[in-house]
Amino acid sequence: MPNVSSPRLTRAIGALSLARGGKLEGVEVAYEQYGELSPSGDNAVLICHALTGNAQAAGEGGWWDPLIGPGAAFDTDRYAVICANILGSCYGTTGPPSTNPSTGRPYGGSFPVITVGDMVAAQEQLLLQLGVRSLASVAGGSLGGLQVLEWLARRPGFVRSAVIVAANLAHEPWTIAFNECARDAIRNDPNWLGGDYAGSAKEPAQGLALARMIAMISYRSAPSFSSRFGRRVSGTAVSGQPQFAVESYLHYQGQKLVGRFDANAYVRITEAMDAYDVGEDRGGAGAALRAFKGPALVVGIDSDILYPTWQQRQIVDTLRANGNVAEYAEIATPHGHDAFLIEWAQMDQHIRGFLAELPG
Amino acid sequence: MPNVSSPRLTRAIGALSLARGGKLEGVEVAYEQYGELSPSGDNAVLICHALTGNAQAAGEGGWWDPLIGPGAAFDTDRYAVICANILGSCYGTTGPPSTNPSTGRPYGGSFPVITVGDMVAAQEQLLLQLGVRSLASVAGGSLGGLQVLEWLARRPGFVRSAVIVAANLAHEPWTIAFNECARDAIRNDPNWLGGDYAGSAKEPAQGLALARMIAMISYRSAPSFSSRFGRRVSGTAVSGQPQFAVESYLHYQGQKLVGRFDANAYVRITEAMDAYDVGEDRGGAGAALRAFKGPALVVGIDSDILYPTWQQRQIVDTLRANGNVAEYAEIATPHGHDAFLIEWAQMDQHIRGFLAELPG
Question: Which of A170, A222, A252, A253 is the right S-S partner for A277, CB 3.0 to 4.6 Å?
Answer without folding.
Answer: A170
